[in-house]
Amino acid sequence: GQQVMQIPQYQHVQEGEDFTTYCNSSTTLSNIQWYKQRPGGHPVFLIQLVKSGEVKKQKRLTFQFGEAKKNSSLHITATQTTDVGTYFCAGLSGDYKLSFGAGTTVTVRA
Amino acid sequence: NAGVTQTPKFQVLKTGQSMTLQCAQDMNHEYMSWYRQDPGMGLRLIHYSVGAGITDQGEVPNGYNVSRSTTEDFPLRLLSAAPSQTSVYFCASSRNGGDYGYTFGSGTRLTVV
User: Fold this and answer.
1) A30, A99 contact by CB (below 8 A)
2) B37-76 residues touching A, CB cutoff 8 A
3) Could you tell me whether strands A85-92 and A104-109 are parallel, antiparallel, or unpaired per DSSP bridges?
4) What was the pLDDT predicted at B33?
5) pLDDT tens, position by position, B40-85
6) Average pLDDT, chain B
7) H/E segment holding residue A85
């Protein structure tokens, strides 16, 4: 079955620095979605990427879908304390199963 | 608009007991899913539904049953609770399975002793 792997598991960032989290799938994906979960909260949908090589931006967040539609990345610039949380990628397969990676938990040092 | 409502928020069960986790959405979404979240393992799909009367298994379906008699409701039944089912359970719904992402409920924290 489809497996989605995400690295790193933890990211400790100095406020103001940039970081990237990566997502890889064992199979080609129909699309990839990114979610953010604040501590004690529930996952919240951020964005979806559908096209090969697609790049989307949301303020300081840049999302990219690989050319082969098997990998994706999330890059955050100038990290702020509001960026604290766990970021999940999730791959959608043809049978509408949305499979999540294990997530990258981000902590920020002020 | 309430979105996705899960009840209860917290539950403690004894091993062998059964219970139903409730999930309801008021957005007329066709797609609904149940996930469990355990530390370091992300969210794992238990069961999902692409419409009323249609359900299918996810990655970790053993020990759980679902039904979808209406568009709004998607209850998850634990048949005979085991300590390994201690987890946080999330219900999620989507309009069409992906284009607008999934909306998650606030979760049910279940402890089986």
Assistant:
1) no
2) 40-45, 48, 50, 56, 58-59
3) antiparallel
4) 95
5) 788 999 999 999 999 999 999 999 999 999 999 999 999 999 999 9
6) 94
7) strand A85-92
The Cα B104–Cα B91 span in angstroms is: 6
Listing DSSP states for B43-63 in one string gives EEEEEEEEETTEEEE-S--TT
- Give the model confidence (pLDDT) of A5-61 as tens digits: 999 999 999 999 999 999 999 899 989 999 999 999 999 999 999 999 999 999 999
Rounded to an integer, what distance in angstroms lies between the CA atom of residue A11 and that of residue B37?
A: 20
Q: What pLDDT is attached to residue A53?
A: 97
Chain-centroid distance of CA A43 in Å reads 12
- Cross-chain residue pair B50–A96, CB shorter than 8 Å: yes
Q: In this predicted structure, what is the pLDDT of residue A78? A: 98
Distance in angstroms between the alpha carbons of the first and the last residue of chain A: 41
Contact B42 A42 (CB under 8 A): no
Residue A74 pairs in a beta bridge with A21, A63
A50: left (phi over 0), alpha (psi -120 to 50) or beta: alpha
Q: Quick one: CA dihedral A64, A85, B43, B25, positive or negative?
A: negative
**Residue B108, both tokens:** 């049910």
